[in-house]
Design a protein that fits this description.
There is one protein chain. By secondary structure, the protein is of the alpha+beta class. The chain has one domain: Aminopeptidase (3-Layer(aba) Sandwich). Helices cover about 35% and strands about 25% of the residues. The protein has five helices and five strands. A five-stranded mixed β-sheet has the order 1-2-3-4-5. β3 and β4 form a beta hairpin. The chain is globular and about 60 Å long. The relative contact order is 0.14.
Amino acid sequence: MTASGVVVRFAAEDDVPLLLRLVRELAAFERAPDAVVATEENLRRYGFGPERHFEALIAELNGEPAGAALFHPRFSTWLGRPTLYLEDLYVREGMRGRGVGRALMARLAAVAVARGWGRIDFQVLHWNPARKFYGKLGMEHLEEWLRYGAPEAALRRLAALDRPE
């Protein structure tokens, strides 16, 4: 427990419904409420199955779910070792400003340090007021790097070009 009364723990499989609810709340906050197509089955399979693709932390304040962080390792060729990629960090609206985000970030940093991971990487929408919070924690905006990605339709078109010999 932190000085603010926040308890942060690793999520268990029983937390899957809560995790999905928090992911949906985050999507609504990020102005994309219909973008979440993940299901409880997806989260169970990829987070708690035999081949885990993410881990999650749950933050509680006074016994109530207050927020979560979903993360996974990725590899940095420049560092020559894994790093922690923070996929989602969300603090429920009524719980903000009470140390929940700080406790989640501190635990993520502790996980990264304990595992020998070289840094934490994540993305933030340009309008998100949490950017000030991250700055106070010593996180830097790397504006020279631009995010690129291929949505599923583009991914399928590109994969169709692969012609194994």
